[in-house]
Amino acid sequence: MYDDDEEDIDEVPPLSPVLLEGPTPAIYPITFPVEDVDPDAAKVVYRLTRYGHQAYLVGGCVRDLLLGRRPKDFDVATSARPSEVRRLFRNCRVIGRRFRLAHILFAGGKIIEVATFRRDPGQTHRVTPYAQRPPTARADTPDPVRLTPIFEAVDDDSDLLIRNDNVFGMPHEDAVRRDFTINGLFYDVQRGEVIDYVGGMQDIADRTVRTIGEPDVRLREDPVRILRAIKFSARLDLGVAPDLYDAMVDFRDELTRAARPRLLEELFRLMRGGAAQRSIYLAWDLGVLAELLPEVTSFLDDDAPGAAELWGRLQAIDRLKRAERLPDDAVLLAALLLGPIEEALDGAREPGAVYEEFMEDLALRLTLPRRIKDRIRLLVGSQRRLRAGKVGSLARRDFFADAAALHALDLEARGLPIPDWAVSPGATAAADDDELRPRRRRRRRRRGGG
User: Fold this and answer.
1) Which residues have CB under 8 Å from 235's CB, separation 6+?
2) Catalytic site residue 216?
3) Is 75 a catalytic residue?
4) Residue of 64, 120, 174, 179 marked catalytic
């Protein structure tokens, strides 16, 4: 999958290439353990630098390594253009319409994403010297500075939604256009240094989520950042900077302007990330959940019967994530919607019509695929039978495993024992169990006359 020639990793340049142009960042000598850095990502960086390009690990992987967590993905930022990356790697594909990215493929389906440094064409930056040199920064470089973005005329009526950032740039321009300071750090693999243009290292030390620049502007640029701030705060157990918290409340209605598929994907990321309970609670507390799922918000606000179980199901999902047994997306969303849907269906003469009415606005608001909407109807609709222990023919339906997974989450939330068939529904569905098969009646023979 990859041209696995040995890269010359012993040749360390005398000075980080990033210092050759642009403002001087704070540079921190930090060497992550070799086993914590993906070797294939390191190979990509070594090859790019060997051929004269700047290349660094960037974003979430650097943040996670600094927080002592294992990164899920490793991304690379480089001065090389996508066509130049493709020439250096035999198994590279260039993707994307709005902004071209290089994907380098490795064995086992692994992808290392390589992005060229870019900039926001409508943005410049302010250079702010540190009052005191950061104590752990490298001492043999000029005085470092911190960058914050400056925007062209901004007022309350300005439309700041990002529609074009397809412009190549330099490392400092790439750093300052990112969303949060903790995501704006570069890591020089060869030199063992973290490069910080935006004050991210201080926020890592303070365990704080803070925007790069004014939060009200950054959230209006891309309202989905509200959901990303919730995700990072909940998943990484970080505080939210006070000005960002206030802006998230003030501009939560901007989420209605975001691309709907992105809203759904970020909602699923909140559910899948191992901190579903904390994420949804923070979204509810901020009023953000009311923009995404007002049906769930009103259910929680009213402290309806079953509200406590909703939080319990989310905690159960987090436990499954830790056990690497996360269920399907339809199950995750059904676990969130189960209480509100059952409340709406209670006593309904035409439950199918009531369900469609309940889901109509929700499906439009989040561009929910019909297959997920229909799946949730089956999962929720089967819960009453499963609670009564009437598995029967359900065990042979294609949705039984998901229905059983939802039932198990609900039982755990209620503090009730989980039956074996809900723990291993696949085995139940495949078993030749007489109790799950309707018995055929034997016809009684008529006694023939004379």
Assistant:
1) 273, 274, 275, 278, 279
2) no
3) yes
4) 179
